Amino acid sequence: MSETVSTADLCVHCGLCCTEALFGWIPLVDPAERDRVATHGMAPPQLEGERFVTPCCFVRDRACTIYADRPASCRDFRCEVLVSAQDGAIPLPAALDTVRKAVELHQAVLDKLPADTSLRAMRQRWKEREATAQPSSPEEAQLRLAYYALNLFLDRHFRPADGELVERLD
Ligand code: SF4
Ligand code: SF4
After folding, report:
1. Which of 60, 59, 54, 61 is nearest to 27 (CA)?
2. Which atom of ligand 2 is nearest to the CA of 26?
3. Distance 133 CA to ligand 1 centre (A)
4. Has this prediction a pTM greater than 0.70?
5. Each residue of 62-103: pLDDT tens digit?
């Protein structure tokens, strides 16, 4: 693996793995880790047993405010864009373009999300609507379109092909 591209080069422009875009929740590996995030101020309902739901309360301006103390799952995670940039499969400028596009698509989702609703709650609502064949309002349909556009892009560039991360949405 090439060391020419670091998380500092790429992740500071992104931060999407700390939001609801890539993960609905992040696992905590043991009770000590749970205690550590709790000490930093994370609490239920965000803190759920051995995991916490996103968006993470510690992300500010795309950066982790508990970086030295971040959980192992955060430490270990590299999206496919970062992996490809670090392996030299794509040059840093191309990786940055991909990250910026994803951030733009995520912002388009946030702009359409009602102020008092999380993306997780919306995903749940969509599942219920699908089960009961209820129609969406025009605003909700716009939000779903933006959400699908974001996810198509994330599937293509950020998530591994095995679908593992999609299972960590809800
Ligand atoms: S999604 Fe990838 S590029 Fe973005 S912050 Fe996470 S690891 Fe870095
Ligand atoms: S603890 Fe830090 S790295 Fe982990 S999700 Fe929260 S902001 Fe991101």
Report:
1. 54
2. 5
3. 36
4. yes
5. 999 999 999 999 999 999 999 999 999 999 999 999 999 999
